[in-house]
Amino acid sequence: METRENISLKGLNTFQVDAAAEAYIRFDAEDEILDFLADGHLDARRYLVLGGGSNLLFLGDFHGVVLHPAMKGISVVGCEPDHIRVKAMAGEAWDDLVAFAVGRGWGGIENLSLIPGCVGASVIQNIGAYGVEVRTAVERVEAISLADGRRAAFTPAECDFGYRCSRFKDERHGRFMITAVVFRLCRRPTCVIRYPGVQEAVAHIGAPTVGNLRRAIIQIRESKLPDPVVIPNAGSFFKNPVVTGAALDRVRSVAPDVPSYPLGGGRFKLPAGWLIEQCGWKGRTHGHAAVHRDHALVLVNNGNATGQEIYDLSERIRQSVSSWFGLTLEREVVVVRS
Ligand SMILES: Cc1cc2nc3c(=O)[nH]c(=O)nc-3n(C[C@H](O)[C@H](O)[C@H](O)COP(=O)(O)OP(=O)(O)OC[C@H]3O[C@@H](n4cnc5c(N)ncnc54)[C@H](O)[C@@H]3O)c2cc1C
Asked: Known catalytic residue: 164?
């Protein structure tokens, strides 16, 4: 366990916003968290649980204590003819877990290769990419209640996973610290290769194995997405709006060529990046914040942007999309207020 007072969070969030926190505590073992809570150190204090800081925007200094679960460890906890259960501690880098699984030929999370952040946060917003969401591989989420220090475990149904959300992101936000996740992976995997760009990249590499799929996805992500170390960002800033057929018709009346993806049940997903681009935001700046020149869905810190500048830019984008298309964009990034 490590405690620091009055620290800069700049190196702890991928937007590299230079916010300060009153205190930062890194936990290297679950017992340290339980002792910390039992001793009443959190009583009446504001706190934030921080993983890799890749889905957060600090609006300003954080007047509270930042809790960082850094517990490490990946272990096999069950084995069946077709499946294997793997438990990963919250502080493991997400992509290290994917590499661990793929290296053994186990399938289920290879499409989520190279997503930044930690295992603990993967379930918070039910990370997803290239046709797969983490919920399909989650068997159990282990946590500690920050209110009373009790251990808890949740089934996938109890997590109430949805598109870039879960109960931990919504109604239980901040109430639990996720300590570990147990995944159920396939020992005889069938690869999910639905996206045309992915199909071509895998075919170019070789047979459709989990290893080749991971290689293809890493190649695509590295060639397309801005590296936060070079251009600070938090990936997609907004969620893709999910709308009814009637709402889609209204959007079509102003933009007949809007792309739409049927989800069933009369609902359609619209690409937020396309909507933002139509409003003319691609590449535009606001102070030191900007919309990435190639990805309208990615907001970037061009240098010394404050969290407030990035937030204000996101607010202006939301207003444009609302007045052009009558749609309200929801932020995917978690906004942390002072
Ligand atoms: C370049 C780039 C590409 C990305 N691509 C994708 C993508 O393809 N798909 C996708 O879904 N996301 C993507 N993201 C977003 C991000 O990587 C994921 O949401 C990731 O899971 C966040 O993990 P983190 O550890 O950085 O969480 P943080 O940003 O530290 O935290 C996010 C939220 O989770 C909470 N939290 C974190 N850890 C815990 C814990 N152990 N217990 C309780 N609460 C916790 C925090 O309080 C906060 O509310 C991308 C981000 C970047 C920068």
From this structure: yes
